[in-house]
Design brief:
single chain; 388 residues; two-stranded antiparallel ribbon; 15 helices; 2% strand
Amino acid sequence: MNRNRIILPILFLLLFAAYYSLLKIIPADYNDIHDHAAFARQMCTGAIPYTGNFLVYLLVNLFSFFSAKVTPTEISLCGLLALAGVYRFYLSQKKITSVIEMDNRFSSNYWFIALLSLSLLFVFAIPIPSYLSDDKFMYIGNYVPTVWHNSTILFLFPFALLLFEQSYKQLRDYSGKRNIGIFLLILLNLFIKPSYFFVFVCVYPILLLSKYKLKKEFWYSIVPLVVGFFFLIGEYWIIYKTGTPSSKVVASSVVFLPFYRNPEFADLGLIPVSMLFSLLFPVLYTLINLPKLLKSQLFWYIFLSLVASVLIFFFISESGPRAAHGNFYWQIVICTWFCFFVALLSLLKDFKFEGNTFKNWFLALVFAVHVIMGILYFVKILVTGSYY
């Protein structure tokens, strides 16, 4: 791990430079990082109240020493995003290491593990059919595992990953102490951005019930979720009933509105095609290894989470000033990334125990295509100034 003392600071600087560059390159009207830094300044001066998901804005102001000035708040926010990216890299690295390294030869595999962990910061959808349209979108119309323009989802990533990991451990081996950690992670998720909790609150109880039935382990494990749900209600009240940066005059609300946020394809039949190519690597891994995956609790956790995330996006939306914001899309980014992460870990295990089979190398090639698409997408943003 000594080499992490070198690579982690370098990665932080590179990510900071990337986010700060994107903040300056993407026009302010289409840049959530710019908007969130502005929200933090407004909250700092009291122009608007701290909203329900206040943590990012509070931290921005804290690390800019409550200056409420443009440059310090932007630097503070980009630094926070770089830290979150480095932490996600570190968590990915630890997990990949646990799969690859079983024989104390860490030094010989370090750069390979580091490269795989770094690739997970870039992995992206294969943009078919959206890129074949006249607009040539890489982001719009796809179900992407990576975004660069939304600070709250970027900061949420490592904490959503920790919540997923700890809850999965609880499903495998119950621990009363772990419920406390899960509760704290639920609060962190809610106070940063509640997107992943929307999925978590739907899926985790089902798996708990399947594992523990109605035994005491189920009831003890469900308590953090119930308390978190009440916090979510409070956050809803703060955001939609007391006024937010986007709802000062006309109130917004959460509504049941099927496919309102899917205007990209006039033909809804293209949505499954887009979804297939967005998730081609995990889909192919699943199809090829379906018999063994059907017996895996982890597979069902990932699969149900993805289904829940997509259904939320398809059927739930916002009304009022927030109607065009697409805030019920963000959980897809988290859950899609989980699909790639877990499929990659599974593929690495297959390489370890099955060797260099054609199947494994074919899947590795498909994963590499997703990563190349992610690098091209990042370059496209830098060149065009548009994340679309």
